[in-house]
Amino acid sequence: MPTFEPFSLAENTGVGFFGAWLIQLIFFGIVIWFTFYIKKKKNPPPQAPVPTESGWKRIVRGAWPLWGAALILAVLNAATLLSRGEPWGITSAFALWGSQVVQAVGIDVTQWGYWSGDAAEPLNQSVFLDTTSVMNFGLMTGAFIASATGGLFALKKIPFKTAMASLIGGIMMGYGARIAFGCNIGAYFGGIASFSLHGWLWAVMAILGTFVALKLRPLFGLSVPKSDDRSC
Question: pTM of the predicted model, to two decimals?
């Protein structure tokens, strides 16, 4: 795949980290303005209310306000950066799990470029020694607990077309995350937080891909929200 040299808004522009922070605030302002402009023009379906509580019960039975969730994510990402030495990531653990499974059946994955050199060390260790894997276990466990306490977790039959859409979408997302060395967390959230230009490029491509996905939804029996719908 084509690759380019890393570009930091803080180090390659000469404005420093404070200047890069101001530049990103301008980018955020443009995104917010454009979002409200499109919303006013397109009249999107209103968001349906989600189950919630009041008082202290709201801590364990959502929904939390968006500003509170954003603040917590920022603080936890900073704590992750300080404790691990790198931003929050997810998909590298999936690559590790899959490679260990493939290695267990006799395929030498150390010949793959992804695991060249010192990068191959985690292949012979427990996944519980991999910080990203441990975070993923916590993430999945927390998501199940949060959805259960919020009254949103339910087991139900999945239509075949919906299952196929999930399978194809999951494979494409996994492949895209590996060639981008990160998903919407590592390449986008972590990328922008570290002043990397690739985070913004990822966002642009993700938005374009979303439009394509919306056009493909009817092929899998999935509806596209209309202006008179109510979305969850």
Answer: 0.75
- Cα–Cα distance for residue pair 141/133, rounded to 1 Å: 12
Residue 102 has pLDDT above 90, yes or no: yes
**95 close to 177: Cβ distance less than 8 angstroms:** no
The model's pLDDT over 104-156, given as tens digits with 9 standing for 90+, comes to 999 999 888 888 888 888 998 999 999 999 999 999 998 888 788 767 777 78
- Please determine, for residue 22, whether its predicted confidence score (pLDDT) is greater than 90: yes
pLDDT (tens digit per residue) in 110-120: 888 888 888 88
